[in-house]
What does this fold into?
Amino acid sequence: MKNILQVRDLKVSYGAIQAIKGLDFHVGEGEMVALIGANGAGKTTTLKTLAGLLTPTAGQITFDGKVHSKIKSYDLIREGLALVPEGRGIFPKLTVHENLEMGAFSRTDGNAAIEADIERMFGVFPRLKERAFQLAGTMSGGEQQMLAISRALMGKPKLLLLDEPSMGLAPIIVQKIFETIREVVKSGVTLLLVEQNAKLALQTCQRAYVIDGGRIALEGKADDLLHNEQVQKAYLGE
Ligand SMILES: Nc1ncnc2c1ncn2[C@@H]1O[C@H](COP(=O)(O)OP(=O)(O)OP(=O)(O)O)[C@@H](O)[C@H]1O
Ligand SMILES: [Mg+2]
It folds into this structure.
């Protein structure tokens, strides 16, 4: 399997605080990989760095065969990398339909193709179709998460970075969103998933990394980690 993402000895600081202290991990094309860990472990910092929003102090990120530091953050979307941030980051004062159009801003394949993809998203999340002309900020948390994921997919990414998609949502909505995430991956998108809900993440993904204090503490097949005593005690509440 070809790696779409390769991270080597990544270090990231906020001023004097070193949040990421040397991370090594990779994601293969078509894989679903989870990054789990406690509050403050460095999960969001890692995703933001991958999305070009933070500049590493050391290390190397290779995305789709290109050294990442040479790509500007606005170009990363064009290169095929999309982040759904913690808190979703939709445009609350724009309608659902306008948010989806914004997600396609980097595309050059024309309005007909974009409109067809908006319809495809509406097929995946009928809730969004019903609310196409509603202001995004007036929707429920679950609907906003559906929109955030759909908007990211409108950019036709090769790699989707999801930061805590389950946060603040009722279990039934989380189930629906994760079902869709699995379908999206089947359709050819690679996924790097950050979740505090470690159980859900390990049940969804094929492999996972446990991050602790800015370092990888454990890694392996998701199934093995689900049955790992250390993981169960620290992250699965068992
Ligand atoms: N803007 C910032 N300025 C200073 N320190 C920060 C900033 N953002 C995060 N940190 C620190 O960096 C470390 C990693 O934070 P990060 O947000 O990456 O953790 P996380 O794993 O995403 O946590 P959570 O599960 O709570 O979202 C923490 O110690 C945090 O306090
Ligand atoms: Mg976080």
Q: What stands out?
A: The beta strands are 3-14, 17-28, 32-36, 58-63, 66-67, 81-84, 159-163, 190-195, 207-212, 215-221. Residues 171-186 form the longest helix (16 residues).
